[in-house]
């Protein structure tokens, strides 16, 4: 299989003005606007759409309120797109689109597939000096006044039946399990060699379906911090961040998103190849976050906000 990553996401929203402001403050570039929708993109051209939830061309929602309606997966080339369509045909209802095809995953989320339109971009992060390696010489590390996400790195859904959903993505779309909470949560990457996860599927005791968060990749550690502080300064509410995940090793910052659930800035995730050893993890606070700040950082005092939500 030759899925290369997330090419775009489409939210169905309620408050278009708030969503438009959020996406701009988040650091995306607006490329299209109409009365019922705004289209933005990351630095590599990953599309982020916020569409009025009542629009007739939106796929169905799996939960009430603003949420993600579609994930568009990029594929390497036309031949791979055709092979993928043929492989899925016996599994689920497949509909042709202008540039590929779409279907629903077992959880009811609409997936679209097309030859990737993301651009190859040359973006560098600040190197980190460690005790034995000093890649940053005669050069200060940056301080960002806001973030500019490079791409959408992963999406996370609550699923009613995680075994069924994982079987769909690994069996029919060629995803690989990078790590898991057995029977509960599965971190999946779309290619054998690549970032730790493009998709995380989580089953809760009440088997609810919906969006947990969308994660945007930024350049480096400093951009996670600068981007998060900027969002707090613009009046958006941090859920938790900054912090660090033991699973995937990433530094994170999660902000409540009027488009749906949470948006995450992250960087420094593990990079996996065929030699990566998946691990079964126990669920617990210490495995979700080694440490985290609730509510984020106050842009005035530059100290923790001291509230939890
Ligand atoms: Fe995440």
What would you say this structure looks like, in words?
With 309 residues, this protein is α+β, with helices and mostly antiparallel strands. The protein folds into two domains: 3-115, 2,3-Dihydroxybiphenyl 1,2-Dioxygenase, domain 1; 151-294, 2,3-Dihydroxybiphenyl 1,2-Dioxygenase, domain 1, CATH 3.10.180. Helices cover 17% and strands 35% of the residues. It has five helices and 19 strands. Strands 10-11-13-9-14-17-16-15-19 form a nine-stranded mixed sheet. Strands 2-3-4-1-5-8-7-6 form an eight-stranded mixed sheet. The longest helix has 13 residues, at 221-233. The protein binds fe (ii) ion.
Regarding CATH, which class of the largest domain? Alpha Beta
Q: List the secondary-structure elements in sequence, H or E.
A: EHEEEEHEEEEHEEEEEHEEEEHE
How much helical structure, as a percent, in the residues? Answer: 10-25%
Mean pLDDT score: 96
Number of strands: 19
Task: Summarize, please.
Helices cover 17% and strands 35% of the residues. It has 309 residues and is α+β, with helices and mostly antiparallel strands.
Explain the layout of strands and helices:
Layout: E1 3-13, H1 16-26, E2 29-34, E3 37-41, E4 47-52, E5 67-75, H2 78-89, E6 95-97, E7 100-104, E8 110-115, E9 151-158, H3 162-172, E10 176-181, E11 185-189, E12 194-195, E13 199-202, E14 210-217, H4 221-233, E15 240-244, E16 251-256, E17 262-267, E18 271-272, H5 285-288, E19 291-294
Parallel strand pairs: 1-4, 5-8, 9-13, 14-17
Antiparallel strand pairs: 1-5, 2-3, 3-4, 6-7, 7-8, 9-14, 10-11, 11-13, 12-18, 15-16, 15-19, 16-17
The structure holds fe (ii) ion.
